[in-house]
Amino acid sequence: MTTIHTPDDLEGQPHANVFPDEEPKTIRLTLSAGEEVAPHTHPGRDIVLYLVEGALELQLGDETYSVNAGDVARFDGAQDISPRAVEDSTALIILARGTDD
Which of 12, 51, 64, 66 has its CA 20 to 30 A from that of 72? Predict the structure, then answer.
C-alpha cells in the first residue's frame, strides 16, 4: 500500500504522526520561534531529522548544532535530544529501530 502526505496535511501540534502504528516511526515536528522540546531520549532508535523550513538549535548530549532548512541530521536516540526553534520551523523526523534491537 502506498501512502502520500504533505507535512501540512497532518494534524497535531507540535508533533504529528505521519504513518500511525507503522515503522519506521515518522513524525512531523512544528515549533514556533523560541519554542523548544524538553531534553528526552529515544533509546534503541537511530534518528534522521530533515528540516523542511526554518532554523533550529539542536542540542544532542553536550553539543549544540545549527540546523537550517534543507539540512539533514542523523544521530543516536540514546542521548539527550532537545531542539529549539530559532525561527518558525517544520521538521520531518524518522525514528528507525536501531541495529541493536
Answer: 12
* Residue 4: exposure state from Cβ atoms within 10 A (0-12, 13-18, ≥19): exposed
Higher pLDDT, 82 or 18: 82
DSSP conformational letter for 79:
S
- Domain assignment present for residue 70? The answer is yes
Amino acid occupying residue 29: L
**1 in a structural domain:** no
| β-pair partners for 81 | 40, 60
pLDDT at 79: 97
Helix H, strand E, coil C: the string for 2-58 is: CCCCCHHHCCCCCEEECCCCCCCEEEEEEECCCCECCCECCCCEEEEEEEEEEEEEE
